[in-house]
Amino acid sequence: GVHDRPQYERILSQIHCDFDGKAVDDETLRVAVTLANKLASIIQEGYESDSTIYIPDTSSVFRESKTLVYSVNPDALKLTDAKFVHSVISPSVAGVLGVESVGERKLRVNSLEIGQPFGQNEELTKRIKRLLLSYPCDIAVLKELLQNADDAGASEIHFVKDPRT
């Protein structure tokens, strides 16, 4: 179960080290697929780890899962120079193990940060206070508040004077 995850990760890592960038044999590939499937099911149960997961690419070479991509479209192999996860690893298992789809990778790589971050940069209470200070102290403020309440469909309105300010 959940306690086996570190063991599965260690075995996959050991295979990666043992073959040192070379293609694994068919038997090792079958073992790796079994381990990857079991590891994926444990991860889906909620077990988390920051360990690196190694799985085979299309050449049966073990690589970090985060460096690979997967696609449900076999023609996608021709569309990019990215390294694909081996076809014996299902796309759903690959996704759980941290492999991006071709579309996700293209979107991440080709997305540009345009412009500047936006949003509220000052505390809400300070912003409201500054807005209230900028209003003129005359009947126009009262009329504006009444009009806003009417626009919102309010049947009554309450004003509270805070003596602390």
Short description, anyone?
The chain is mainly alpha-helical. 44% of the residues lie in helices and 6% in strands. β1 (54-56) and β2 form a beta hairpin.
Plain-language structure description:
- The chain is 44% helix and 6% strand.
- The chain contains 6 helices and 4 strands, in the order ααβββαβααα.
- It starts with a helix and ends in a 14-residue tail after the last helix.
How do the strands and helices of this protein lay out in sequence?
Blueprint: H1 5-19, H2 26-44, E1 54-56, E2 62-64, E3 69-70, H3 91-96, E4 100-101, H4 102-110, H5 124-134, H6 139-151
Parallel strand pairs: 3-4
Antiparallel strand pairs: 1-2
Keywords:
about 160 residues, mainly alpha, two-stranded antiparallel sheet, two-stranded parallel sheet
Helix share of residues? 40-55%
Order of helices and strands: HHEEEHEHHH
Give the overall shape, derived from the CA principal axes. elongated
**Largest sheet, if any?**
2 strands, antiparallel
Percentage of residues in strands: 5-15%
User: Kindly state the mean pLDDT as a whole number?
Assistant: 85
